[in-house]
Each structure stands twice: as structure tokens, then as C-alpha cells.
């Protein structure tokens, strides 16, 4: 039987007073993450457990190799041999990008991957997996993204519907320095609760040429929704 490779996601089933959307973009799945290009035979697929570390490695390689300055945008398919503890034992290029520098960078990033191992009938097994590893300018020019989201207090919406958009100035450490209501919901109590929650949220700082930078972003709270409905 074939099993698909997957990445670990957060449980979004908890009921929330508001849905937060950051920078106008849904962030449940990071667009810059590696994608599955092939699968391997096992009853339970290996699962990536260090997505943030992988993203950091991609940014480092993109900048250190000079690809950032050249504006390179391409992808290599890398094959990885994953052992019974989820470590990468071996790597090789499956489909070349025809850019030797990018291929070498992709192999370096592949070695950073860590997994929950594949399992066959409950036993951990060694498997080969293939991933597409991409490098592109948006890796190093990126808006702030939430690290820890502070949830809003419970409010009795009494059937109200609407959205509050908060503008935030996030510094190079990921701390909110300024916050203001950009677009109100029509209910001041909800707007102020959204503002308080936004101020207490912590971020991964935005990047300019792979360097942390202070910048403005937005966070939108939807009154009466669930987080998982928008994900």
C-alpha cells in the first residue's frame, strides 16, 4: 500500500470567539514549505517534525550561496533515506534543477529534515521519500508571522457578525510596538478586545533580504467564526 508524506499541523478544532487572519494571508500551511513529489510503501508515512528549522535552513542556503542576490527561483527534487528513528541517513538528487548551486543547497536542506519514522504494521521501517525543495526570493522577503497567538476573551456576540482588522508594527524581535484598529466591526467592544489580543500576540519577525526587520502587518478577527472554518 502507498502512504503519503505529511507534515504535522496544529489542532484547530477548539472553538474560538474570533478567527485571526495575518497579513491578509491564511497561515495554516506555509507556502514556502517543501512539497511531496512521491510516496513510499509503508502503512504509516514519515511525518516532518521540524518545519521551522527546515525553513531557516532554506533561507540560510539561499543567502549564503548568492542565489538571493541573483534572484534565483527554481526547484530540485531530493530523495532522502529516512531511518527507523526519523533521521536522514542518505540524500541524493532525484530531479535536478539544472543549477548545480541550487542542487547542492537542496541536498544540504534535505539533511536538516527530521521525521517521525514510517511504520509498517506498527514497526518503524527505513524508507525513501522524495521532496521538492524550492528556493525563491520570497524566502528572504517575508511579512511577520504569528508565533504564539493570544486568544480573545469570551464575548456574548448576541448574533452579531463582522470583522475587525488591526494594523500592527512588529519589530525585528517579533514584538508588537504599535497597534491600531484599521477597520472596525461596528461593535466597539469587539474591536477593543481584538486590539488587546493583537497586542499580546508574538511573531516571527518579518524579513528583508533574509534579515529581521521592523514592519507593519495586519491581523483580522472574524466575529462569531471558528478558526478551523477558515483553515
Verbal overview:
- This protein starts with a strand and ends with a helix.
- It has helices at 51-64, 67-70, 100-112, 188-200, 227-230, and strands at residues 2-3, 6-7, 18-22, 35-38, 40-41, 47-48, 74-82, 88-95, 115-116, 118-120, 123-125, 127-135, 141-142, 145-148, 162-170, 176-183, 202-204, 206-208, 211-213, 215-223.
- The chain contains 5 helices and 20 strands.
- The protein has 2 domains: 15-26 and 141-230, TonB (TolA/TonB C-terminal domain); 33-135, TolA/TonB C-terminal domain.
- The longest helix has 14 residues, at 51-64.
- With 231 residues, it is of the alpha+beta class.
- Strands 3-20-15-16 form a 4-stranded antiparallel β-sheet.
- The model is unreliable at 1-42 and 226-231 (pLDDT under 50).
- The radius of gyration is 20 Å and the shape is globular.
- Strand 18 and strand 19 form a beta hairpin.
- 21% of the residues lie in helices and 40% in strands.
Taken in chain order, the helices and strands follow as EEEEEEHHEEHEEEEEEEEHEEEEH
Structural class: alpha+beta
As residue ranges, the low-confidence spans are 1-42, 226-231
| CA-based gyration radius | 20 Å
> Order of strands in the sheet with the most strands?
3-20-15-16
| CATH architectural designation of the largest domain | 2-Layer Sandwich
Q: Termini, distance in Å? A: 29 Å
E-strand count: 20
CATH topology name of the largest domain, in short, is TolA/TonB C-terminal domain
Count of individual domains: 2
Shape: globular
What proportion of the residues form beta strands (DSSP E)? 35-45%
Q: What composes the largest sheet?
A: 4 strands, antiparallel
The CATH first-level class of the largest domain comes to Alpha Beta
Q: Summarize model confidence as the mean pLDDT.
A: 79
The total of helices stands at 5
State the helicity in percent bands.
Answer: 10-25%
Amino acid at each position: 500500500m502507498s502512504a503519503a508524506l505529511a507534515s504535522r499541523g496544529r489542532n484547530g478544532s477548539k472553538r474560538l470567539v474570533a478567527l485571526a487572519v495575518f497579513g491578509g494571508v491564511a497561515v495554516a500551511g506555509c507556502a514556502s514549505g517543501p512539497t511531496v513529489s512521491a510516496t513510499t510503501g509503508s502503512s504509516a508515512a514519515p511525518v516532518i517534525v521540524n518545519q521551522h528549522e527546515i525553513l531557516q535552513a532554506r533561507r540560510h542556503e539561499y543567502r549564503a550561496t548568492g542565489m538571493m542576490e541573483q534572484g534565483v527561483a527554481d526547484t530540485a527534487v531530493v530523495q532522502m533515506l529516512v531511518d527507523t528513528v526519523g533521521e536522514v541517513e542518505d540524500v541524493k538528487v532525484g530531479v535536478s534543477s539544472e543549477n548545480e548551486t541550487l542542487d547542492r543547497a537542496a541536498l544540504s536542506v534535505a539533511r536538516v529534515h527530521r521525521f517521525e519514522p514510517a511504520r509498517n504494521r506498527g514497526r518503524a521501517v527505513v524508507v525513501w521519500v522524495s521532496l521538492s525543495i524550492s528556493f525563491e526570493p520570497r524566502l528572504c522577503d517575508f511579512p511577520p508571522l504569528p508565533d504564539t497567538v493570544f486568544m480573545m476573551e469570551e464575548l456574548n456576540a448576541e448574533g452579531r457578525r463582522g470583522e475587525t482588522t488591526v494594523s500592527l508594527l512588529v519589530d525585528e524581535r517579533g514584538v508588537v510596538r504599535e497597534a491600531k484598529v484599521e477597520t472596525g466591526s461596528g461593535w466597539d467592544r469587539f474591536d477593543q478586545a481584538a486590539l488587546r489580543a493583537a497586542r499580546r500576540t508574538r511573531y516571527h519577525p518579518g524579513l528583508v533580504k533574509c534579515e529581521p526587520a521592523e514592519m507593519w502587518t495586519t491581523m483580522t478577527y472574524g466575529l462569531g467564526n471558528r478558526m478551523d472554518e477558515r483553515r
